[in-house]
């Protein structure tokens, strides 16, 4: 069994020789003759450097925490949720429809994992915890795809819809609520609200322990932009990607590699558990994505009698799946999961009987065959040599993404991916499942997804925005809750300012901390500033969220005071609002909808007080708060540790499993997005997790990772890139063999 080092190591897979080595930067380099042997080699690299990450994800995804790791109430809830989602079990369907060559590719990856498991055994963490590890399978990799598609992505949409349902159940003023998400709640009726109030069981927002469990990769936002040769100083395409994920964790989510397959060369990041490079560049094509915010989750209102669901005047049988969760310390937990033609019924897993009445069904478009398209794309991407073939491959991906592509011929392109339902409503509020006309009418074909090639302006950019610029009047509605436009507006503004860009200029954009959101609000706030220290600091603020800024600290305090002023009076109780603001991702993701109510001074919300009255009150609270104490810098307020994903900060700092604390720069609305919030007693973040810039006229990429190559605490590669990442320094990786 090889041990990866700076000297090339050789191994044979099915009569094909493979070479693996570690570059000077620490990342691994694979040389193989075909796709399957490259997948085998990638698996060996993942096991060498990310064994713990790989198998922890599988334990969680299969719903086996109580059996193998930690048996308590929190773990039981996670296991129940994972079994309900059926991330692993449903992959049987994908397996049955995948082409043989794709199955062989994924089997080669599984063979690599199992070769390592047989020859090297378990990592010390699993030995210490006495965890038995079964061999890796194709289904395990397909499960990773489904988890990537849901956790932190489709789940975010589900959270928002649960927020809407919960708000309606608690009696918020409907017309105000409609204005908040206009026009997507226009079809909401009083009858629907009455049905929601009669639900026999309601889970509220997706349980915190699911959303913020430290083991799971959460992919919530990102930026990407690309310039055509007409905007490039080198006369070639330059691409920039910086996916925004949780960064207060070790190891980093991504695993960076260079892979040589025959005459083809690919460099970028992979995901432990999967073969292939999912973001990066090849000899001729660059490819990177942001989360697309496609609405892939809906809820339906079910009327249940005798475990049957009402359909068009008749009660129909549901399928019932019985699950058993094995537990280390307690009796095994048995429960039932009900599924019908709309989705999974949300029922109380702790109740032995399903009581007659109203329930919700959760529909997720990737529940069935949600890994198939992505698996095929991972296989096909390797041979794509231009944006046209790459667009076709990426359109099959089940995960909601906004892909930006460039090629050596000078083409740039945008491609949407995801499993978009065909529906007769906005999808943002539940409809009665009893009426078949309310059901999804299949999924959009890949050719109906949004796509752009070679725009006249010479550049493309996305930042989880609404994509209006890429759509036309006949384009189907796939996004109803995008993030705010501030980041993409800033990117577009900077790209429009100059005729030509160098690679260094575009790298500098990835460190931009200027807030357009701050600009909009400060324009009106400045009229209220006086001579006190808070006012002086705000007046001098440069609208940037750098670690030394005190203006950013004061503006954020004012901003949240303002939201509380507007949205708690006659709408949300103060305590409930503080939970939404500080302990959920609702404001982190969907703040722009709240901003628009304020910026436009929507009359439904300002009947008794003017917008400027609310500004005055919010400012007064900030002035009072800091009248007798020092104003901390933004960096002092935003300090967080990068915790080992298994031990999650529970070990003494002296042991070195955690790093920091580090200061999180940026905000929700800056190119350097810096979101930091608490949920279920745990701090979560999403920030640029990796920065990647490449000029296709060269064979090089400039990259840096929020972490290091290895998940081995005592490896020098455990946190090898953290300081460079914090200070916007890049390493240079070449497609050539090192």
TrEMBL record:
Key words of the record: Calcium, Hydrolase, Metal-binding, Zymogen
Cofactor note as given: Binds 1 Ca(2+) ion per dimer.
Enzyme class: hydrolase
A GO term, aspect molecular function: metal ion binding
Protein origin, superkingdom: Bacteria
Active site residues according to the UniProt entry: 222
Keyword hit for Hydrolase: yes
Family: Belongs to the peptidase S45 family.
Annotated protein name in UniProt: Secreted penicillin acylase
Species annotation: Halobacteriovorax marinus (strain ATCC BAA-682 / DSM 15412 / SJ) (Bacteriovorax marinus)
Taxon lineage: Bacteria, Pseudomonadati, Bdellovibrionota, Bacteriovoracia, Bacteriovoracales
Gene of this entry: acyII
């Amino acid at each position: 069994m090889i041990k990866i080092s700076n000297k090339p190591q050789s191994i044979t897979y099915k009569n094909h020789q493979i070479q693996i080595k570690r570059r000077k930067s620490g990342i691994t380099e694979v040389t193989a003759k075909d796709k399957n042997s490259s997948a085998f080699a990638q698996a060996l690299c993942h096991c060498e450097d990310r064994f713990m990450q790989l198998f922890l994800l599988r334990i969680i995804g299969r719903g086996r925490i109580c059996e193998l790791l930690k048996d308590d109430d929190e773990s039981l809830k996670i296991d129940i949720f994972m079994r309900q989602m059926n991330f692993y079990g449903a992959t049987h369907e994908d397996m049955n429809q995948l082409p043989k060559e794709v199955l062989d590719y994924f089997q080669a990856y599984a063979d690599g994992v199992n070769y390592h498991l047989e020859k090297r055994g378990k990592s010390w963490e699993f030995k210490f915890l006495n965890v038995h590890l079964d061999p890796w399978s194709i289904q395990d990799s397909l499960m990773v795809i489904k988890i990537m598609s849901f956790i932190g992505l489709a789940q975010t949409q589900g959270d928002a819809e649960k927020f809407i349902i919960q708000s309606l159940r608690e009696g918020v003023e409907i017309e105000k609520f409609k204005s908040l998400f206009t026009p997507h709640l226009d079809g909401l009726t009083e009858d629907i609200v009455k049905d929601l109030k009669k639900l026999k069981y309601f889970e509220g927002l997706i349980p915190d322990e699911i959303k913020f469990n430290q083991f799971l990769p959460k992919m919530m936002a990102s930026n990407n932009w690309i310039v055509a040769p007409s905007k490039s100083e080198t006369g070639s395409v330059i691409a920039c990607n910086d996916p925004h994920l949780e960064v207060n964790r070790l190891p980093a989510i991504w695993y960076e590699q260079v892979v040589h397959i025959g005459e083809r060369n690919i460099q970028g990041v992979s995901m432990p558990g999967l073969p292939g490079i999912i973001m990066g560049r090849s000899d001729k094509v660059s490819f990177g994505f942001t989360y697309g915010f496609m609405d892939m989750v809906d809820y339906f209102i079910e009327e249940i009698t005798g475990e049957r669901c009402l359909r068009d005047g008749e009660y129909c049988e549901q399928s019932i799946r019985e699950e058993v969760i094995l537990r280390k310390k307690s009796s095994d937990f048995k429960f039932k999961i009900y599924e019908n033609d709309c989705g999974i019924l949300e029922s109380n897993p702790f109740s032995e009987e399903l009581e007659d009445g109203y329930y919700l069904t959760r529909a997720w478009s990737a529940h069935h065959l949600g890994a198939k398209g992505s698996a095929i794309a991972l296989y096909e991407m390797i041979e794509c040599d231009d944006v046209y073939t790459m667009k076709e491959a990426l359109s099959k991906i089940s995960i909601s993404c906004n892909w930006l592509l460039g090629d050596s011929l000078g083409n740039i392109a945008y491609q949407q991916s995801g499993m978009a339902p065909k529906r007769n409503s906005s999808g943002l509020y539940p409809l009665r499942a009893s009426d078949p006309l309310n059901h999804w009418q299949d999924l959009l074909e890949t050719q109906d997804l949004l796509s752009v090639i070679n725009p006249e302006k010479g550049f493309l950019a996305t930042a989880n925005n609404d994509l209006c610029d890429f759509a036309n009047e006949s384009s189907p509605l796939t996004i109803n809750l995008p993030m705010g436009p501030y980041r993409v507006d800033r990117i577009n503004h900077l790209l429009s300012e100059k005729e030509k860009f160098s690679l260094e200029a575009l790298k500098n954009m990835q460190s931009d901390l200027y807030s357009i959101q701050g600009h909009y609000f400060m324009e009106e706030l400045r009229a209220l500033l006086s001579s006190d220290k808070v006012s002086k600091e705000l007046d001098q603020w440069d609208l940037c969220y750098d670690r030394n800024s005190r203006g950013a600290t004061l503006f954020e305090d004012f901003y949240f005071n303002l939201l509380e002023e507007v949205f708690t009076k006659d709408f949300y109780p103060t305590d409930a609002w503080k939970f939404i603001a500080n302990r959920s991702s609702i404001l982190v993701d969907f703040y722009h909808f709240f901003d628009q109510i304020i910026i436009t001074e929507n009359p439904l919300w300002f009947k008794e007080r003017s917008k400027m009255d609310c500004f005055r009150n919010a400012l007064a609270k900030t002035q009072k708060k800091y009248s007798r104490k020092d104003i901390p810098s933004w960096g002092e307020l935003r300090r967080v540790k990068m915790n080992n994903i298994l031990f999650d900060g529970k070990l003494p700092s002296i042991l070195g499993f955690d790093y920091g604390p580090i200061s999180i720069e940026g905000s929700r609305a800056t190119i350097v997005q810096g979101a930091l919030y608490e949920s279920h007693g745990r701090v979560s973040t999403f920030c640029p997790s990796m920065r990647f810039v490449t000029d296709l006229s060269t064979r090089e990429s400039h990259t840096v990772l929020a972490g290091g190559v290895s998940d081995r605490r005592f490896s020098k590669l455990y946190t090898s890139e953290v300081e460079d990442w914090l200070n916007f320094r890049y390493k240079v990786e070449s497609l050539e063999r090192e």
